[in-house]
Amino acid sequence: MYREAFTLRNCSVCAVFWTAVALRAQTPHMMTMGDMGDMNAAGMFLMDNMSGTAVNPTAWPMPMIMKPLGSWTTMFMAQAFVVGTQQSGPRGGDKLYSTNWFMANAEHKLGKQGAFEFQLMLSLEPATVTRREYPLLFQTGETAFGKPIEDGQHPHNFVMGLGMQYALALGENTTLDLYAAPVGDPALGPTAYPHRASASELPQAPIAHHWQDATHISDDVVTAGIAYKEIKLEASGFHGAEPNENRWTIAVGPINSWSTRLWFFPSSRWAAQVSVGRLAHPEALEPGDQIRSTASVEYSKPMPGGSWSSSLIWGRDHRTFTQRNVNSYTAESELPVSRKNFITGRAELVDKDELFDAMPETQRLLGIYYGSTFRIGAYTIGYTRDIGTFHNVETGIGANFEAYSLPAAIKPYYGEHPVGGNIYIRLRLLPSYN
To answer: What is the model's pTM?
Structure first.
C-alpha cells in the first residue's frame, strides 16, 4: 500500500487548466442549421467524431461548446475528475490523482460538398497522475520506470490527439472520409473509454482497456473511410508501439501496423462496430505482435438531465509470440435517474496473462504464475450528483465501489475478497443555456 497527495505545483496546474477551458459561450450542441452558419453535410459528418474517426450514437447529447470564429466553426469539450482511491489486499493501493482531457476542433467548409477539421486533444495527466500510474487492481499494460505495470493504470499523454480530417459528400447518402494524425486514433475498437457515452461518469479505466481500445493514442495514423447510409467502412495504417513512458513528448515511428473497422448505425440511438488489426510489437517488454479483434454495440436514449447510455464490448488479443488468445467482455451503463443524479455500472470478465510479469526472477523460477492466464471479474457500481454549473463548468461529486472475482490460486497475492473504492469530484465543460 502507498499514499500520495498532489503537490502544490500539480494543484496549480489543474487550476490553470480549468481556468483556461472555462470558456464563456451561449451555443449548445443541439443547434439548428441556421445557427451553424456555412456548415454543410460534410461538416455535420465531421462534427459527430469523438476520438479519431470513432463515434458515439448521434442521439447522445454531446457536451460541447460551439462558437463561430469568422468562417470557421470551433468546438470545445473538456472533462476532469479529482479522485481519491483506496483498495484492499496485499496489492491494493491508495492515491489522490486527477484524470482529465481537453479537446478543441476547428472546422471549415471546403467547396459546396467538402469540409475539413483540425483536431487537438490534450491531457495534464503526466502531471496529475504522479509516479506514472494510479492504483487499479488487476490492470495491466505498458510500463513505468522500466517495469511492467501491474495493478495500475498509466496516465495519458499530454498530446492525446493531433490531426486533420477531410470529408467529401459524394452524393446524398455517400461520404468519403480521410484522416491523418501524428498522434491519433486508428480504426480499431469502440469509442475509447474517456470519450464513451456510457463511461462518462466513471473516472477509472476498464481493466479490459488493453484488449479493446488501447490504440486510441497511436503515432503516425492515416485512415480512409467511406460511409453509405447506415454503413461506414474504414482502414488505417499506424505505428503499433504503445506510447513510451515520457508522456510529455510526441513519438514517431514507421507505419508498421494496420486495422479495419465496419460500423453499422441502424438509427440515431445505436452504433455498432466490428474491427480487427495487427499491432507490430505494441508492448515494449513483450516480444512479438498482437492481433486484436473487437466488436461492440452502443446505445443512447436522451432523457431529462442527460441520456441513458449503454455499451456491450468484446475484445480479443492474439499474442503471436506465445500463440495465446486472451479475451475480454465489458458491459457498461449510465442512467440519469433525475436531472442531477446518475447511476453507473460496469461489469467485466478479462483473461489476464501479465499479472506477475514484474515478479523477481527467483520467484518466477519457484512459482507457476509468471506467464499464466487468469480469468478476472471486475464489477463497479457508482453514483454521481450534479452540484451546479459555474462559468460553463458543470460540477458533480460521486463515488463508486469495485468488487472482483478471481481464481483461488492467486488469492494469496490479492486476498480472499479484494475490493476498491473511489470518491471523486467531476468537472465538465458545458454550454450555457441562459
So the answer is: 0.90
